[in-house]
Amino acid sequence: MLLRTTLAFGFITFLLSTTAQALDLKQALERAEQYDATLRTALADYMTAEEAYPTSRAALLPDLTASGFYQRNDTRRENSTGAIQDFENTFDTKGYDVTLNQVIFNKALWDSMEESKAAVAAAAANYEVAKQELILRVARAYFNVLGAQDNLAFTRAEKEAIGRQLEQSKERFNVGLIAITDVRESQASYDNAVANEIIAENTLRNNIEALRVLIGDPVDELVPLAEEFPLLSPEPNDINEWQKMALENNLSLKAAKFSLTASKEAFESARAGHYPILNLAAAHTYDSSDGSSFSDAFGGSDNTNNNIGVQLAIPIYQGGGVSSRARAANAQVWSSQAQVDLATRTTVQQIRDAYLGVNASISSVRAFKQALISARTSVEATEAGFEAGTRTSVDVLLVQGRQYEAERNYARSRYDYLLDLLDLQQAAGSLTREDVWLMNEWLATGSGASPAPTN
User: Fold this and answer.
1) Domain 2-60+106-274+318-440 belongs in CATH node 3.90.1150.10
2) 426 contacts 132 by C-beta, under 8 angstroms
3) Core vs surface per residue 371-387: b (16+ CB within 10 A) or e
4) Spatial separation of the C-alpha atoms in residues 276 and 315, rounded to whole Å
5) Angle subtended by helix axes 25-35 and 107-174, to nearest 10
6) Highest mean pLDDT, choosing among 63-72, 81-90, 381-390, 400-409
7) What's the pLDDT tens digit per position in 35-59?
8) Neighbouring residues of 178: CB distance < 8 A, sequence distance ≥ 6
9) For the CA atoms of 259, 264, 265, 269, what is the dihedral angle to 10 degrees?
10) Residues in Cβ contact with 382 at an 8 Å cutoff, skipping those fewer than 6 apart
11) CATH code, residues 63-105+277-313
């Protein structure tokens, strides 16, 4: 009974030590969205890819160019024979021209524009994938810290309980009630508990550092998970419906399909090298000169020229380059198709694993909670037997070890359930920040309506 009271008091003390300034899951994600380098890289990649469409479209829009010039001319001519009169002439020439080029038919450029559309769509899907992956990385890092804190608390409580058992064993040995082997068993268990505490402390520090890398700030305290929160079963409760949903909405699969479309358009663009090209060309030119290089007698001139026409180019043979580029592009189509097939199979596996994982996690949470209740009862009974002399200290150590193992299993199963929920939503393509906001209400300081306890 004393052991159970000590554990309860320790857990309550831990909860009370979590102040209003402690970091919650929502705040951790918001900080990570501003700081995480992986997400910022994904955003930059998307912004870069997004410019592919206006760049390719520009090649199909009118190309209008204007230019102008001004020229100062100074001409001198001297004849040594005197047969031709020497002269000197200075005059200015100026002018401008405006040219217009417009594609009428160029299949390669049209296909390139369609390729860029698909590439932009793929980049957008990949950016959404990066945002979903950040949610999962933050949630895992957050719950890993909480789990490590739990494990350290259980390890310390176990060490203290074994320490008390060791002292009792020594006292009983001194009065001749037990053999020296019981004392040595208790001492070995205590030494092992000390080593486990060191490992637990280091694990906690490592997990805190992993979270700090994501959010960019030192981690002092985290808001713990509430004692009771709802265990939500997948809705609809049909694995095939979830599979259908994932095949329609999974973002990684969407990105692979968009990349396949882009590859097909790139293949068509490469083949279009065999097609004729028809362009419209127009120009307006004006130049003015106020003199002549021969003599002032010729005077100046103003010239205006307008022309418009179409230009047709028919590729006949380009050294086999068009066919080679088409073959390379076709091979890329095969590769992209294989990536779609792989993404499809992976999506089916992920959604089915996640669906089964959520249901299994719900059962695990309930089972481990019952196992913990049974383990605590067993400890109380064994401690009473030890006091009465019917059980040995080794028996007490064994049941205490089972209790703390049950404590760890129960705590870990709760975090695993939450992560399985997020995995299911990601596989289905529906994971958003709002899902984290809802889960944040299940922490110890959640401000939402109190959920019905199901675990």
Assistant:
1) no
2) yes
3) bbeebbebbbebbeebe
4) 6
5) 130
6) 63-72
7) 999 999 999 999 999 999 999 999 9
8) 169, 172, 392, 393
9) 130
10) 391, 395, 396, 399
11) 2.20.200
At 451, is the pLDDT very low, low, confident or very high (cuts 50, 70, 90)?
very low
- Packing angle of the helix pair 321-388, 393-427 (nearest 10 deg): 150
H helix or E strand, kind and range, residue 42: helix 37-50
Q: What is the pLDDT of residues 221-252, one digit of tens each?
A: 999 999 999 999 999 999 999 999 999 999 99
Q: For residue 273, is pLDDT > 80?
A: yes
In the chain, domain spans: 2-60+106-274+318-440, 63-105+277-313
10 Å CB burial of residue 259 (0-12, 13-18, 19+) is buried
- Burial class of residue 8, CB neighbours in 10 A (0-12, 13-18, 19+): exposed
Lay out the sheet containing 277-289: strands in order across.
63-77, 87-105, 277-289, 301-313
Amino acid identity, residue 90? T
> How far apart are alpha carbons 76 and 295 in whole angstroms?
10
> CA nearest 106: which of 155, 60, 49?
60
- Decide: residue 73, CB within 10 A, 0-12 exposed, 13-18 middle, 19+ buried: middle
Q: What is the largest CA-CA distance in the chain?
A: 147
Q: Is the model more confident about 20 or about 315? A: 315
**Strand positions, DSSP E, 345-451:** none
CA 11 vs CA 117, 150, 152, 226, 383: distances in Å: 56, 9, 12, 12, 22
Q: Under 8 Å CB-to-CB from 22, ≥6 apart: which residues?
A: 220, 221, 222, 223, 445
Q: How far is 278 from 318, CA to CA, in rounded Å?
A: 18
For residue 319, give the DSSP letter: T
Residue 171 has pLDDT above 80, yes or no: no
Q: What is the pLDDT of residue 85?
A: 63
